[in-house]
Every structure is written in structure tokens, then in C-alpha cells.
Amino acid sequence: MKNRSLKILMVIISLSTGLIAQQRMQPLGGQSQATQPREERGLNLPEYSQKTTETGLQNAWQQPVSPDYQIGPGDVFDISIVSLEKVYFQIPVGPAGELHIPGVGKIQLEGITLEESIKKITSVIQHKFPKAGIEVSLYQMKRLKIPVTGAVMETQTVKLPGNARLSEVLSNVELKPTARLYETLLLHKGGEVDTINVLQYQITGDKTLDPELVMGDRVHIPYGSISRDIVEITGERDELSLVSIEPNKSLEYFLNTSIQFSRDVNIGHITILRGATTHTLNPSEYDSFILKAGDRIALHRNEPVNVIGFVHLPGAYPYYPNFSVGDYLSLAGGLTKESSMKNIRVLHADGTASSDLRNLVQPGDVIEAKRSFQHFMIGDINFLSLITTTASLILTWIAATK
To answer: Dihedrals φ, ψ of 330, to 5°?
Structure first.
């Protein structure tokens, strides 16, 4: 009888323990280790990528018109003359640069600035109507048609507002990687040629390196020479390509002006293959390392960071420099009630582990949110339920042993 009672008690305890344990099982997918980074779900996370040559190029027509803007055919003026009665005109500049004002006459404006044009128009009208109130302004700018040739995917004519700058042309064409942007040629109608270093403009913002264009200008972008100024980009990047380099410039200058990284590139570690020599560089060396034609620049991938365990959105996330463990837990939707910050462990790619949450996360790290001891022991069962379960077990055992 005693053995029978003991067996009954063991069966009851086993069944009860199993039911309790089921309530503590890790949620499905809690240990998932996705191999692809999770979509960012509209979190508007920062991008750590270098910009292309289009970075910072301003839309010229969205800026106030400069007083030095050159007037030409196609510009339209607003003219208001108030004397005995008010007369209002909107008059375009003609093909020869002339402005015909009814009752006043013809004024030649081509080649002079907006400021000079307004003064000239006002002066001529004032001479005709000495006591009149006169208002003159530019109502609409002409449209420029700028042919672009050379190292572009397609030779084309770019249509832009009359105060557009060189950078606007470049942002509206698809450049070939071998484009020698540091020697961009701006050819004027009269035969003059200006050589513009577009890359230097990106660094300094000097407006003299981003001139306003006028009707009749043409843009030609030379090709780079394989033997003089071409390097090869390999590894993680947006596009595999040969890219022109400006002579005697550093790796840092090149990275800031001539290349766009994909999001997964590790910019803290770059390898340069020069002939039979391999140079492995860190960021402190980029500014002193001068590139040469024929160099192969190898970019390395940042492995994603996996967040597993008791979080709301377990999975793989892109590596972001200077992100902490807490930042990645936030990306993963935060901890569930089964875990706590005391139960976080970081598994590193080299096989070591750490519980120091002050350290920055590194590429390939796995952040594990383990179940807390308190939840393991009690879980979702409240104190009253625990007492009821215990009492039921005792009463069942007493009844079975009578």
C-alpha cells in the first residue's frame, strides 16, 4: 500500500511539474538566429555610408536668384508703371537679348546681370515717365540646355533653370566610374575653357568650383587613364568598378569624394593590394596613405548583430558603429517579461562571452536575453495559484494514502 501511494504521488508530481514547465517554455522563435538583417521597420536609423559626387548638390532653382544672375533670351520680367493709371506688363527677353516695352521702346539686356538689368529698365522708363512709380522684378527664369559629353553613361542635353550650377548638371547625369571629375571641362560659347575640380568642391564647398552656367555652355568629363589614375574597388560595395583617383591624394580623400559604400561595409578596416604587397589599414592611417594607379582597394563586410532569446523581435540586425547593447535591444522591441537586463549575455565572434553592457557591440556579436531566475521558478503563475496547486497535491496524496 505504501509503495502504491508513493507511485501515485510521483505521477501527480510529474504531471503537475510538466504542466508548470509548459508555461515556462521559451516562446517560439525565441532562439532564432536569422542570417539576413531584419528590415528596419521604419525606424529611421542613421546611415553610415559615404556620399557620392552628388552629395550636397543644391537645387539651384530653389535658391534666391543672385543679383549677378546673367540675363538672356527666355527670362521674363514683371514691370509695373504707375502714373495717371497703373500699367502692368510681363515681358520676355527676345532671342537677341532685347526687351520690348510698349510705349517705352527696346532695351538690350543680354550678357548683363539681373541687378544691372533692373537698373537699366528702371532708368529708361523713368526717362520716358519722370513722375511715374516703377517696379521691376524677374518673374521667370529662362531654361538652359547644357550638352554633357565624355565619361557619362549616355551623352545627353540636360535642361535646367537659368541659375543652375555645374553641380546640378552632374546630379542629372549618370557618370561612369572612370570619370575624371577633378578635371571636368566647362566649355563656353566664346571658346574659353575652364577646368573645374568637382571633387575639391565637395570638400571645401567653394562656389568658384561650382560656377553658374549660361546659355551656350557645354560640359565634358574626361575618362581616367588605366596607367595614370585608375584603382579597382573589390569586396562589399554598391557597384564593382574601376574608379579614377586624383593624383597624390590620400585614401581618406578618396573615400570622402569618390565612392559610395553599401551599408554593410566595415569602414574601420580596409586592405590595399599594391602589386605583391598587402597593406591592412585602420582609420588613423587613411589620411597618410597615398593611393596610386593600379591599387586594389578591398572593402570588408560587417557581419550583422543577432539578438536572440526573450525579446519581442528576435533576429539579425545591421551593424551600426557606436551602438550599445541597449540600442540593439531597443531595435529588437525590448525585453519580454521573462527576462531582465541582469540576464543579458553578449557572445563575440571569437568565441568569448561578456556580460558587461557598457562595451560597444561589434560586428558578428550575438546578444542573448536569457530567462530570469525569478521567472524560471514562478513564471506566470501567481502566488494564489501556487498555493492552490500545492494544496491540491497535498490533499490528493492524503486521500491516496488512506
So the answer is: -65, -40
Can you tell me the distance from the alpha carbon of 89 to that of 21, in angstroms, rounded to the nearest whole number? 87
Q: What pLDDT, in 10s, does the model give residues 172-191?
A: 998 888 899 999 999 998 89
In contact, 269 and 276? CB cutoff 8 Å: no
**How many domains does the chain contain in total?**
4
Q: Is the per-residue pLDDT at 389 higher than 60? A: yes
What is the pLDDT, as a whole number, of residue 14? 55
**Position 47 in a domain:** no
Domain extent, residue 278, equals 226-260+265-301
Write out the three cell numbers for 243: 574608379
DSSP state, 92?
E
What global pTM score does this model have? 0.59
Is 11 part of a structural domain of the chain?
A: yes
The number of angstroms, rounded, from the C-alpha of 385 to the middle of its chain's C-alpha atoms is: 54
Distance CA 225, CA 245 (A): 10
Given 301, 327, 355, the domain boundary residue is: 301
